[in-house]
From TrEMBL:
The lineage of its organism: Eukaryota, Viridiplantae, Streptophyta, Embryophyta, Tracheophyta. Residues 59-174 form the PH domain. Transmembrane segments: none annotated. This is PH domain-containing protein. The keyword Membrane does not apply.
Amino acid sequence: MLNLFTVRGMPWGSSTDGQKKVELPAAEVESLRSAVADLEEREAHLKAQLEHVDELLRSARLSGYLYIRTRWTALPGEPPPLDDTEVDDWLPRFVVLHGLCLFFYLLSTDLSPQDSTLLSDIVEIGPLPSLTREDEETRYAFYMLTGQGLRYECSSISKIQVDSWLSALRSDCKVGSDATVLNGSSQI
């Protein structure tokens, strides 16, 4: 049999069948058993996490990575917000449309969302002009405005993905375009 581990300073002994064996003190054996138990516990936790994510994604209406940034609308009496169109503060987030809620995760494997909003809180949805970044990559964008004044701006390099999100959100939020909300009646 090949010796896969050769550790200097370890006492070696021979068994009756001619194979060499390492003799470990009881404390080291217990330490190794503890390490194996910790690894088995971690493996069980990761399996549970994977099953949770799998179940969430199976039952989600729509999910995927979008670049997100948030803005607050100015309150009455506040000065208008600064023009920050040149600020590149778009952060990639895994977004899940599930039931009556929109969840924002840092990664698709996270157990808990970083943020969420109820679809009933969304009062306005609409497209934004496409963006061209320094790397010449064009991103298509849309926004969602909540009744509390929080504006989520979302973008993707895929126009199809943006159109899918706009369609699903308009349908689920019972909101048309931005003109529908602002005028209080639908445009024909």
